[in-house]
Amino acid sequence: xxxxxxxxxxxxxxxxxxxxxxxxxxxxxxxxxxxxxxxxxxxxxxxxxxxxxxxxxxxxxxxxxxxxxxxxxxxxxxxxxxxxxxxxxxxxxxxxxxxxxxxxxxxxxxxxxxxxxxxxxxxxxxxxxxxxxxxxxxxxxxxxxxxxxxxxxxxxxxxxxxxxxxxxxxxxxxxxxxxxxxxxxxxxxxxxxxxxxxxxxxxxxxxxxxxxxxxxxxxxxxxxxxxxxxxxxxxxxxxxxxxxxxxxxxxxxxxx
Length: 256
Known about the structure:
- This protein has one domain (2-199).
- Strands 1, 2, 3, 4, 5, 6, 7, 8, 9 and 10 form a ten-stranded mixed sheet that branches.
- The chain is 6% helix and 44% strand.
- It has helices at 29-37, 139-145, and strands spanning 2-8, 12-19, 25-26, 44-54, 67-81, 91-110, 113-130, 151-163, 166-175, 187-194.
- The protein has 256 residues and is mainly beta.
């Protein structure tokens, strides 16, 4: 189960996601490596990304010039860690990830269809938090990763394409430091997503007016509203030449 919200503005965008991943208990070296490189695979994970666009031109042809933006994202993935699949005790752990970089975007629109191609280049870090990071002698980490290292730094390169509401892509995360199987020496991360856009400008405003608030200019008064004091009566339009006037209707009851 997952869900998210993305807000697009002319110069800024914010993307929030919550995901319930497939890894609830980390009990193998492979699960531990995956949780560090890709925290969003953990049972409870959350990501937040902010993007600011820059009015830069990086090509001699305006039609081929990408839109340049800076991005900053943070991710958290929480799960239980234990030394092996047969261990009886769990140590709660959280993997924190953060990335900062530049995004180069090429986009096109034709009719009701739109396409986008983006390239991300940035630096990234990973940090293991929670009880598993404060365990005496780091027994669980050493059993799973053969190291007590808690922090990793490196770089990332991602490419993704979007057509209308469907997006696919992948990238390389290269974390440096001690040789940790499945963590360092580079890992490829594919992804895919489907979004449902909501145009807030098309949502009607159903908020009732506050008592005493004057109507907006040009808004006709509700039926049956008496004219304001000093308002002249409507002008009588003369009958056109040759037209026959209609006599007034006879009242149902006449009292003298």
